[in-house]
């Protein structure tokens, strides 16, 4: 009984991060699933199923607050999904360790630019998007996700922000886009027999409640503090990728 309660709390914590920052939380979910006894490939596949649930809950929370730009989601996902599949295919021919380290340093730069850029007022009538750039964002986000196994949300938010979206809109739009990306990845891994729904269901209550709570909390936090928090997440993931690229064993 105590074990199940602990799992629910862990799921809630991960879901809270997902809803708060518009990310999948795979860098937290995968280690938890390996502790539950899953091999790494099955942990990754099952993690995507978990991300689908947390992203759906956080997307619902952001949709209620009208922090989502659907046109950006549709265009971005049309390019992200096939790009992610291509990235995953190319991993068979490349040494991704060096790429992981390089990408980690790139994320540090992204975090720096995110902090330095002044915040755009979160008023929908002031949001002007250059939709010609959205397909590029879709390709970059999807390809990097498939190639390096990182959450699309880690790139979605800063890339959406670079389009001129206020941070609240960048996070809300990322949550909805991430749901579709994770769902597509779940289907692919399920076909390969790499998804354990019994393990995902253990985390589901906490993930769903946490995702919804995170979306609500994000709406109440000052944009600059939200940017600082997201930048910190970027730095943590960047350091993890650099260490993995250098050959260190990182969970």
Structure description:
This protein has 251 residues and is an all-alpha fold. It has one domain (1-246). The chain is built from 10 helices and no strands. α2 crosses α3 (40-64), α6 (134-148) runs antiparallel to α7 and α7 runs antiparallel to α8. The radius of gyration is 17 Å and the shape is globular. The chain starts with a helix and ends in a 6-residue tail after the last helix.
Topology, please?
Elements: H1 2-21, H2 26-35, H3 40-64, H4 70-90, H5 96-116, H6 134-148, H7 152-162, H8 167-191, H9 197-220, H10 223-245
Helix pairs in contact: 1-3, 1-9, 2-3, 3-8, 3-9, 4-6, 4-8, 5-10, 6-7, 7-8
Features:
about 80% helix, mainly alpha, about 250 residues
Q: Please trace the helix and strand order, writing H or E for each element.
A: HHHHHHHHHH
Distance between the termini: 26 Å
Which residue ranges are poorly predicted, with pLDDT under 50 across at least 5 consecutive positions?
A: none
Classify the oligomer: single chain
Largest sheet: none
Total number of helical segments? 10
In total, the number of domains comes to: 1
Write a compact overview of the structure shown:
This protein is an all-alpha fold and 251 residues long. It has helices spanning 2-21, 26-35, 40-64, 70-90, 96-116, 134-148, 152-162, 167-191, 197-220, 223-245.
């Amino acid at each position: 009984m105590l074990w199940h309660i602990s799992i629910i709390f862990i799921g809630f914590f991960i879901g809270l991060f997902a809803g708060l920052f518009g990310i999948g939380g795979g860098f937290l979910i995968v280690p938890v699933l390996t502790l539950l006894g899953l091999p790494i490939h099955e942990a990754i596949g099952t993690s995507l199923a978990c991300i689908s649930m947390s992203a759906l809950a956080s997307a619902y929370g952001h949709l209620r607050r009208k922090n989502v730009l659907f046109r950006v989601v549709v265009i971005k996902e049309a390019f992200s999904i096939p790009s992610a599949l291509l990235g995953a295919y190319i991993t068979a021919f490349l040494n991704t360790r060096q790429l992981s380290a390089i990408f980690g340093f790139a994320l540090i730069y992204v975090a720096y630019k995110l902090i330095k850029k002044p915040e755009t007022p979160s008023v929908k009538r002031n949001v002007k998007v250059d939709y010609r750039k959205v397909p590029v964002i879709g390709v970059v986000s999807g390809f990097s996700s498939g190639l390096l196994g990182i959450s699309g949300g880690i790139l979605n938010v800063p890339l959406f922000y670079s389009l001129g979206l206020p941070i609240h809109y960048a996070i809300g739009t990322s949550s909805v886009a991430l749901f579709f990306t994770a769902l597509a990845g779940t289907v692919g891994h399920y076909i390969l027999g790499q998804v354990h729904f019994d393990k995902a269901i253990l985390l589901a209550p906490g993930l769903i409640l946490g995702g919804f709570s995170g979306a609500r909390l994000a709406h109440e936090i000052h944009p600059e503090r939200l940017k600082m928090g997201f930048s910190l997440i970027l730095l943590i993931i960047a350091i993890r990728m650099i260490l993995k690229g250098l050959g260190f064993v990182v969970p």
